[in-house]
Amino acid sequence: MSRLSTSWIRHLLGQGSYQPLANSVDSSEANSDILPGNYPEERVLHNNRNAINSNSIQHVFKHLSSWISFLIIKPIIIILVLSFRILAKLINIIYFRDQYTRTNSGKAANLAINKTGLNDPIDKVNKFIRDLEDNLSPLQQRHLESGLNPQLPPFFVGSYTQALYMATNRAKFLFVYLSNSQNENSSTIFNKVITNPDFISLFNSNPNILIWGGDLTNPEAYQLANSLNVTKFPFLGLLCLTRTTTMSQQGPVKTSPKISLISKIQGGLNEDINISATVIDKFKRKIRKFDEELIVMRTELRDKYMSQVLLRQQDINYQNSLKNDQLKKQEKLYKELKREYLNWKSLYFNKLKQENDLEDSAKIAIKLTNGERITFHFPSQNLIDDIFIFVELQNDDYLDGNIKSSITDEEAFERFKDFELKYEFKLVSPLPPRTELNNYLDEENHPKIRDINYIYPNGLLIVEDL
To answer: Is the C-alpha dihedral spanning 138, 142, 144, 150 positive or negative?
Structure first.
């Protein structure tokens, strides 16, 4: 009883994993495993607690609630949100249809206008010029409205690419004015230089000077600022074609002209600076320095352009000459084929003239352009083309019986299979309504004579020149 109580107390105090030393000699072998210096083998005690407890039940309910939320509650919420949105759209369309239509059309129109404005360089430049005009003083705006004196230089209305083309291909000076509306010094150059009468007079006195401007919101102006390494705004630069002279074995040789930045001002200007004496004279000196070379370039470009025009004209004349030669050859070949073709056909029609006992024929009277009237019997199963061929033979005097052809029928079919005779006349029926027989020639399958009621079994046709 005391041993049982002792083991229960040890188990309660957590000492059940240790074994006491045996008292008998027989257990010495077993006790050697638990002597000092040896580690006893660890044993796993059996858990006598029940597997179903509060923690396990709470864990199960937690997983179950998450699955219920994922599979049932969230889909229901999504369906309800979508249903309410669709219902709101339907209500807007049904009860507020006019307002809904006007709103959508207005948005579409504004979007189209914005896209057009963003992509049109002329609109961008016009907006930039309008912004500059708004920045003028009230007195300057009154002068601008009166049109007496220009208050702004004549900005180029177009993209920078177009302005650069003018400066490059016509050897002109090109001012570029770049501004940044977010810069505190953005109006310095505008107020002191751009609107200065001395600066504006440069463009009035010299037609070979252009000016283009843009704000950094314009992609072209932004790219130009990067290419010119502009570090401060506003920026006013002068561009023109330049070239250098290098020495070679043949003597001094000038390099190909390229566009270069020859003068610039950027950033803010001091208040005490004399604009006309310093800034504007700076540009004038550069213009005088490069103007003589640009005059030479303009002459060279003009001569180059005229030589290109002359070469193009010579090429056009050569192509026209080749075309005329080809047409003459084709005309000569056509006349030769036409002569052989009519010679061959004349044999057939001369034979028909001698046959007076045609069983099924159409008796057609033909009034020629010279007033002569001829009556001929055509086999009704023949195509209407035979009537036109007969008139052609009659006009060219192939039916006098003296013309002979050495071409056999087999050779003729092979030679004339792709030949098409061109008729320079039309055959008209005088019966109302006046009908042209030529209209049937435009059809893919030409009809037979017996299929035309106003010429079969007899009829009258009048020959008229085209």
So the answer is: negative
* 267 and 125 share one domain: yes
Q: Angle between the 121-134 and 97-119 helix axes, to the nearest 10 degrees?
A: 90
Which range of residues forms the domain containing residue 408? 338-465
Reported pTM: 0.53
Residue 55 CA to residue 61 CA, distance in Å, equals 10
DSSP string, 65-120: HHHHIIIIIHHHHHHHHHHHHHHHHHHHHHHSHHHHHHHHHHHHHHHHHHHHHHH-
> Burial, 106: exposed, middle or buried (Cβ in 10 Å; 0-12, 13-18, 19+)?
exposed
The pLDDT tens digits of the residues spanning 219-232 come to: 999 999 999 999 88
The CATH number that applies at residue 458 is: 3.10.20.90
pLDDT at 95 over 70: no
Strands (E), 129-285: 173-179, 209-215, 235-242, 245-248, 251-254, 258-266
Is the bond preceding 234 in cis, omega lying within 30 degrees of 0? yes
Please name which of 262, 264, 258, 199 lies closest in space to residue 230, comparing C-alpha atoms: 264
To which H or E segment does residue 317 belong?
A: helix 281-354
Percentage of the residues of the chain whose pLDDT score is greater than 70: 80
Residue 383 in domain:
yes
**CA-CA distance, 304 to 317, in Å (whole number)?**
20
